[in-house]
Amino acid sequence: FYQNMILYYQTKNQPDAMTKFADEMIASNPENPLFYYVKGMVLQEGKKIAEAVEWYNKALEKDPNYDGALFNLGICYTALAQEYSQKNASTNIKDKAKIKKDQEVLDGYFKKALPLYEKLRQLQPDKPERWGMGLSNCYYNLKMDAKLKEVEAILEKLNKE
């Protein structure tokens, strides 16, 4: 029932109704991680990424293996890194302190996303299409070259199939 209602609100492009529905679902059964995930999804689709992060984390508090929350939370952290980079990255290559600070902030986002994608890989090793790009993005940005090569090889094999 809940899945059908979510799909209905999505296809009708009714984010406010979907938010209200998610709030009602949480109130009716606060232990179900799906409801927190839905709230996060609504916020993410509404470009409220920082708020979506909170709700995906709440879903993971209820179920640490909730694959949808792991995946979308990883996407949120990557989006926050991109947003930060676009708004704050220094274009003055002589400002070494600013460049260092920017890199630390960006690394922080990728360090938050990394264990999410690694856990998703652990839970779904047969679905590299689900975790591969996010994981390779983290490995690339965190300069984890050996692991990056491993995931790139998996993705290359997947693309050939």
Shape: globular
- Helical residue percent band: over 70%
Name the helix and strand elements from N-terminus to C-terminus, one letter apiece. HHHHHHHH
Integer average pLDDT: 90
Biggest sheet statistics: none
Number of strands: 0
Oligomer kind = single chain
Note poorly predicted spans.
none
Distance between the termini: 36 Å
Number of helices: 8
Q: How large, in whole angstroms, is the Cα Rg?
A: 18 Å
Structural class: mainly alpha
Strand content: under 5%
Protein traits:
mainly alpha; 161 residues; 8 helices; globular
Please render the helix and strand layout as text.
Layout: H1 2-11, H2 15-28, H3 33-45, H4 49-62, H5 67-88, H6 96-123, H7 128-141, H8 145-160
Helix pairs in contact: 1-2, 2-3, 3-4, 3-5, 4-5, 5-6, 5-7, 6-7, 7-8
Give your account of this protein's structure.
The chain starts with a helix and ends with a helix. The protein is 81% helix and 0% strand. The chain is mostly helical and 161 residues long. It has helices spanning 2-11, 15-28, 33-45, 49-62, 67-88, 96-123, 128-141, 145-160.
In short:
By secondary structure, the protein is an all-alpha fold.
